[in-house]
Please model this.
Amino acid sequence: MSVIAELSVPVEEFPLGRALAATPDMEIELDRIVPTGDGVLPFFWVWGDDVETFVSELADESGIDEVAMLDRVSDGALVRATWTDEPGIVEAIVESEATLLEVARRDEVWKFQLRSSDRESVAGIQRYAADNDIDLRLDWIHTLTEVEAGDQYGLTGQQRRTIVAAFAAGYFDEPRGTTLEELSEEFDISPRAVAKRMRRGLRNLVAATLVGEE
Model:
C-alpha cells in the first residue's frame, strides 16, 4: 500500500540549507504544478530579495552539478538544479525511487515529505542514511488515506501549516491576536515570507472552494 512519509535532516546535511546560510531570509518552495518526473527536486521556487546570491552559493555546493534560473519574477525565481550522485539525502531518495512531494525548512532541520510504493522503500532510505553517516530522522509515516487534509484544496503542507497556525493564534481576528513578526519566529522565516506563503495558500484555497460556485 502506498505511503506518505516525512523525513528530517539537519540543515548542514542538505546543499540547499548550506546555500541559505548566506541568504537566511530566502524561502524555498517546491511547486506542485511543475513536473518532477525527470529527477528528485529538479525544479523549485526561491523567494526573496537576494536570488542571485542564493543561486551563486548553490552552484558552488559539492552536491550540485548545475544550477539554472529558468524564470525570474519580481520577488523570486524558478530554479532548476542538477544533482550529483554523491552520498546524501537526495541520492538516498533517488535510489529508493520514492516521489518527493515537499521540501521545507523548519528551524535547524530540513523536512522531506515523500510518497513511496510501500514502507520498505522508506526503510531503504533509512538504511542508506545509516550506511553513509547521514543524520536522518523519520518523523512520521502514513498510508495515503491517513494523509492530513489539504491536498484536495491545492495547498502545500507549508501553506496549510502556516494558515492553520495563523488562525489558531488569532491572526484573522479583529483585533488581531498575533502579528506576522510573531508567526515568523514560529516558522523561522521572515515576516514577508510568512505573508507571501499565506497569500499563495489562501489564493489556492479560494480557487479550489469558492471560484465557479455561483
